[in-house]
């Protein structure tokens, strides 16, 4: 049966050919009405050929914000997800069906930059969903077009959480708090909008995968944030074929074992992931938390980040003296072990033995205990911050610990950093 399953997967990948878009993110928004702690969140798994990402803190015209940006963007003018000190958060996914066939076939680099700059403007100036709507309206009024083809996930400190399917000519709002639009309190988006030309849908396989997880989790009353950033980002079950790569895990990593790796939620093109957890209405908006994987989700742990008055960050997730993020660079080196084939379609084939195996020596299996300790330590700090109602010295101490602990663990386990 295993041989038959592998053959089916190989055929499936071959039939896909070059149809899948490279700018292909996976996202979900969740109302605080259905989360265990009453805090809403938005999530984005970012897929892009521009792999080198990092985290920055920026003092905008009105608000300070924290965001994921591309390393090459030295001025931080294009952000890909983030939140500000008012508790406003935003992320996007490319939607290839909102402006018709002609726009769907065009490359997205210029469109990506416009989306990134729009999110920069939103983070520096918006506090609520209404503010964001006013921003979109003003751009449309001034320029005559929104220059967009995207789903924007937006969250605020008042409990608002919605998608804005945004095309050149306007936007359609989908509210996670509206029981008619989101009967189970969550909404999923990948690379199509429900208000667009459905014959142009992209990202179907990943949509099926995350929709299946969210539906099951909702029925089990388990829409907690932690499994999303830790498990969904690394799910090895294909949304269309339902093949689970854990079923094919080798005994050890002594020999390469290659498997097709196409259109899973994590991909070769996954550059970062971020789950931004909002606050309850009685909490300081500055306690909004960005649970952030700044590189490949298969080789990099998630780290909680929140805004401080002076913009402190762990040093390993932001620009170092060479302009890189140290943790992201280390994750790249590990990803090269997962995808060592550099010619042809090598990015579609993963060395499963180096990812997971029964001996427990896979890269992902060694990342998880590092992350366990980060989450355990973070819980203590976050509980203190929420009790005190604001960020304090605990933040600086935690960020310093993150730098030291992750550096030590990557040196010990992988001889990196």
Description:
It is a single chain. The chain is of the alpha+beta class and 417 residues long. The chain starts with a helix and ends with a helix. Helix content is 34%, strand content 20%. It is built from ten helices and 15 strands. The strands form three sheets. It has a seven-stranded antiparallel sheet with strand order 3-4-5-6-7-8-9. Strands 10-1-2-12-13-14 form a six-stranded antiparallel sheet. A two-stranded antiparallel sheet has the order 11-15.
Please state the average pLDDT score: 92
Q: In which order are the strands of the major sheet placed?
A: 3-4-5-6-7-8-9
Give, in order, the helices and strands: HEEEEEEHHHEEEEHHEEEEHEHHH
**Into which percent range does the helicity of residues fall?**
25-40%
Give the N-to-C terminal Cα separation. Answer: 42 Å
How many β strands by DSSP? 15
Radius of gyration: 20 Å
Strand proportion = 15-25%
How are the SSEs placed, and which strands pair?
Elements: H1 2-16, E1 26-30, E2 41-47, E3 53-59, E4 64-70, E5 79-84, E6 89-94, H2 100-105, H3 109-125, H4 129-143, E7 150-155, E8 161-167, E9 170-175, E10 186-189, H5 204-219, H6 225-230, E11 258-260, E12 270-277, E13 289-293, E14 303-305, H7 326-338, E15 349-351, H8 352-355, H9 363-388, H10 393-414
Antiparallel strand pairs: 1-2, 1-10, 2-12, 3-4, 4-5, 5-6, 6-7, 7-8, 8-9, 11-15, 12-13, 13-14
Helix pairs in contact: 9-10
Which features would summarize this protein structure in a list?
417 residues; 15 strands; 10 helices; 7-stranded antiparallel β-sheet; disordered N terminus; alpha+beta
């Amino acid at each position: 049966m295993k041989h038959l399953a592998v053959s089916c997967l190989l055929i499936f990948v071959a039939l896909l050919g070059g149809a899948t878009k490279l700018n292909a993110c996976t996202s979900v928004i969740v109302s605080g009405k259905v989360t265990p702690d009453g805090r809403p969140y938005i999530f984005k798994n970012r897929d892009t050929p521009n792999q080198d990402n990092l985290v920055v803190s920026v003092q905008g015209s009105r608000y300070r914000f924290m965001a994921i940006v591309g390393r090459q963007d030295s001025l931080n003018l294009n952000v890909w997800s983030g939140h500000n000190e008012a508790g406003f958060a935003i992320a996007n996914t490319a939607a290839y069906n909102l402006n018709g066939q002609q726009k769907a076939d065009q490359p997205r680099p210029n469109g990506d930059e416009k989306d990134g700059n729009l999110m920069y403007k939103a983070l520096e100036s918006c506090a609520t969903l209404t503010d964001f709507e006013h921003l979109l309206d003003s751009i449309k009024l001034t320029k005559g077009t929104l220059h967009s083809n995207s789903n924007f996930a937006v969250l605020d400190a008042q409990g608002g959480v919605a998608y804005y399917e945004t095309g050149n000519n306007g936007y359609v709002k989908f509210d996670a708090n509206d029981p008619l639009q989101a009967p189970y309190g969550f909404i999923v988006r990948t690379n199509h909008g429900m208000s667009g030309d459905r014959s142009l849908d992209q990202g179907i396989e990943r949509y099926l995968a995350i929709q299946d997880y969210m539906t099951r989790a909702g029925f089990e009353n388990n829409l907690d944030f932690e499994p999303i950033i830790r498990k969904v980002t690394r799910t090895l079950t294909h949304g269309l074929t339902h093949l689970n790569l854990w079923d094919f895990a080798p005994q050890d990593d002594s020999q390469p074992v290659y498997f097709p790796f196409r259109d899973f939620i994590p991909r070769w093109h996954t550059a970062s992931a971020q789950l931004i957890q909002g606050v309850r209405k009685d909490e300081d908006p500055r306690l909004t938390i960005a649970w952030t994987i700044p590189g490949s989700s298969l080789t990099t742990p998630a780290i909680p980040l929140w805004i401080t008055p002076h913009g402190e960050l762990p040093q390993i997730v932001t620009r170092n003296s060479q302009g890189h993020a140290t943790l992201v660079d280390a994750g790249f080196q590990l990803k090269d072990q997962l995808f060592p084939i550099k010619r042809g379609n090598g990015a579609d084939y993963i060395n499963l033995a180096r990812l997971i195996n029964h001996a427990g020596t896979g890269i992902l299996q060694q990342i998880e205990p590092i992350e366990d300790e980060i989450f355990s330590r973070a819980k203590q700090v976050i509980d203190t911050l929420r009790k005190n109602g604001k960020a304090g010295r605990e933040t600086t101490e935690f960020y310093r610990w993150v730098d030291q602990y992750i550096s030590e663990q990557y040196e010990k386990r992988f001889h990196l950093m």
